[in-house]
Amino acid sequence: MKNWKDKEWMKAYMRKAMKKYRIKLREDNKCLICKVNLKGKLKYCGDCLEKERKRNKKLRIKYLEKERKRAKIKNFNYRLKALQLISGKKKPCCVMCGNGDIRVLTINHLNGRSKKEKEKKVMDYVGIIKGRRKISDLEIRCFNCNILYEYECGRYKLPENYKI
Questions:
Q1: How many Å apart are CA 20 and CA 76, to the nearest integer?
Q2: What is the pTM of this model?
Q3: 28 is a domain residue
Q4: With pLDDT > 90 as the criterion, what percentage of the chain qualifies?
Q5: Would residue 90 count as lying in a domain?
Q6: CA distances in angstroms from 21 to 32, 54, 56, 123, listed in the order given
Q7: What are 124-158's pLDDT values in tens digits?
Q8: Domain residues for 105?
Q9: Phi and psi for 148 in degrees, rounded to 5?
């Protein structure tokens, strides 16, 4: 039974009808937009093809912007879960100074990063969350405390002529 008031049913019905209509236009070798007769197996005439390319470019840019925003949020959530898992607390904080600002917290590798991790150049938060990466040699520090730790361990060195 047709229910014209049901919006979901209406969308599905219109989608099917438009698909049939486009198939008929293609069989008749007509442009899908302006219905001009075409030569060969083209979908659009020259003018409509250019308009369609511009439209697709705008849609692609809009989609990529949405995707970037979604990925940024998703990565932040992964990072937060990994920090919570390593610290063992709901609100992670630096083990040295106690700073709890999520924007400055980072993961400190007590034994240095492995060769594989250095090649990746990005932190594998999902690996930490899913248990593929051991967290016994990781701790949470703020950026300042992490850099101080690196200098104390000897991984970073000051220039020889530097005086305090």
A1: 44
A2: 0.62
A3: no
A4: 35
A5: yes
A6: 9, 23, 21, 50
A7: 788 888 888 888 889 999 999 999 988 888 877 87
A8: 69-153
A9: -60, -40
